[in-house]
Amino acid sequence: MSIRKRLILSNIAMIVIPIISFILIEILLGVFYYKVFVPKFNGHPPHSFYFFRFGIIVPIFAITNGVLSYFVSRSILRPVKNLTNAAKQISEGNLNFEVKPINNDELGQLAISFELMRRNLKESAEIQKKYEENRKELIANISHDLKTPITSIKGYIEGIKDGVANTTEKMDRYIETIYLKTLDMDQLINELFLYSKLDLKRVPFHFEEVNIHDYLVDRIEELRFDLEPINVSITYRENVDRENSIVLIDREQFKRVMTNIIQNSLKYMEKDEKRITIKLIDDEEKITIKFHDNGKGISKDALPFIFDRFYRADPSRNLSTGGTGLGLAIAKRIIEEHGGEVWADSQIGEYTNIFLSLNKKSIVKVTQ
């Protein structure tokens, strides 16, 4: 019951209850008067009788008013006290409690709003804490990955200064190594900048309706020219209705996704016969793209983290395989901006599968 109704009903009760009580008392006193006082006094009752009647009516008014005022004020003050305590705890930074509504009234709704605010504040605090931890981890990872090539560059430059590179061949090798290290740093900075922009949702996407089958056919033909010289075979398979394979994608950003996934596969292929297979799968309202390679696989412990930024399955963060540890994280961010999902499965020593799922664009067929 709302506070307004409660106050109105209590005020009405303060009037109605005494009136009803007065009527009942008058009836009882009338019966008592005619049975006791009329035979005895044979006329009007004494003044004490009127004082007695008045003395009963006044306490009835007082008791009714007091009882109703107590319960109504109690129903208001208890929730207010709870809300005051809740506000005090929130102001002190304590968000580990629960605000429970006592009544289903305006104060109860206010308590529900307080509880919602507390949960939102707690969630924001946890997110802020997570962001702070991620920021520290990001700085540590950047420092590590930048320090490695810088230390190497510094060592080679000192070698040149000290005359270690005392032949033209050695000097060329030193300079070439320095150049490659600067390229590594440039790639790290570019990918870090891109990941940061994706994280802040500041990368512009230009979505268009694309037949994903035709897109993959063209893209795989481009990739084949790059992969065949390094003895990597790439094949394409499809199990879809080609006319109903329309998705909304940003062509350039999706090209980056494919490039990052394939580059990641190439880094961990140690077999003589290297194979990459791309398969298009029709999944009712979605289109799934499966990237399969016959690399060395990923352990079950590492598999849930391969899309995390800077993650490498090698705990020492060995850079010998190349890359920045951001490729798959960038791919995941881009796919999420497309409204899709990305996941993986793998078998050590056998294969790794990476799946991309995109929402299918519905096509309305017009019949003539």
The first-to-last residue Cα distance is 63 Å
Spans of at least 5 consecutive residues with low confidence: 316-321, 363-368
Number of domains: 3
Shape: elongated
Major β-sheet profile = 5 strands, mixed
E-strand count: 7
Please work out how many helical segments DSSP would assign.
7
Structural class: alpha+beta
Radius of gyration: 40 Å
**Fraction of helical residues:** 55-70%
Q: Which architecture of the largest domain per CATH?
A: 2-Layer Sandwich
Query: In CATH, what is the class of the largest domain?
Result: Alpha Beta
What is this structure's SSE topology?
Elements lengths: L2 H39 L5 H45 L14 H56 L6 H32 L8 E4 H16 L4 E8 L6 E4 L1 H17 L6 E10 L2 E8 L33 H11 L3 E7 L3 E9 L9
Helix pairs in contact: 1-2, 2-3, 3-4, 4-7, 6-7
Verbal overview:
The chain is of the alpha+beta class. The protein folds into three domains: 3-94, no CATH class; 136-199, Helix Hairpins; 208-359, Histidine kinase-like ATPase, C-terminal domain (Heat Shock Protein 90, 2-Layer Sandwich). It contains seven helices and seven strands, in the order H-H-H-H-E-H-E-E-H-E-E-H-E-E. A hairpin with a 2-residue loop joins strand 4 (274-283) and strand 5 (286-293). It starts with a helix and ends in a 9-residue tail after the last strand.
Write a short abstract of this structure.
The protein is an alpha+beta fold. The protein is built from seven helices and seven strands; from the N terminus they run ααααβαββαββαββ.
